[in-house]
Amino acid sequence: MPDGDATTLEGLLRVGREMLARAGIDDPALDARLLVEHFTGTTRAHAITAPKRPVEGEIASHIIAAFERRQAGEPVHRIIGFRAFYGLDLLVSPATLEPRPDTETLVDAVLPLVREAVRRRGSCRILDLGTGTGAIALALLSEVGEATATGTDISADALAAARENAGRIGLESRFTPLQSDWFENVSGKWDVIVSNPPYIPTESIAGLAREVRDHEPVAALDGGEDGLDAYRRIAGKALDFLEVDGRIGLEIGFDQKQSVTAVFLENDYGLEGAAKDLGGNDRVLIFATKSSRAADI
Description:
This protein is of the alpha/beta class. The protein is 42% helix and 20% strand.
């Protein structure tokens, strides 16, 4: 047991801050609070109004073990097992990327497209390629009741997490998990195709922060030699699955706007929109077929 009082909320928070600070964690106070609240079932208000609240020894031991995992670099939300995304509390697993706020930019950018499809034809069919936790598809479904979505992933374990998330949120009737290597097992036409594909160049993986490098699934990070492999596969096949007036929404790396746009221009798409994340970095691109853009004009 580390030095310090680990029998109360106040004591555990102090112990956690000190342990994580010694390990060089960026925000030790926040991570300590998240872990203590999760394992004790308390809130920030409890720590303020009842700092001397006792914590049972077994629970305190679990919390100290969680602090040690965080010290070793395991992300706090992987320790907790859940991550908030677009107002949804999503299960994360070793087979899935941890949903991040930057990806909410993609949801924001695609939502108007989903609503426009509903306005035009009364419904919207969404295809989420590489769905992972199901975060993007489920966020869109939670906002638009007339939409349905299929989430594909090559990983059966990732699809199990997405299926569980859909059930926990109450969206299982509108979300279909499908094991597929990109478009391999996909059929039909879709109003909106979305994806947060792997886009990190292979040689850059080793230089990522340990929280990402050691705990995120490599297959969901590695975009090949130049980071563009997945974009080429999507651009090369999406025309076969996209409605004439459909749109494609993609997350990209902060420095990939020009290169990803070039891939899609070469495959008969036009860039229709772009969005930056909260840090001001290029994060989302929206593409339409050139024939669709001409029809809109």
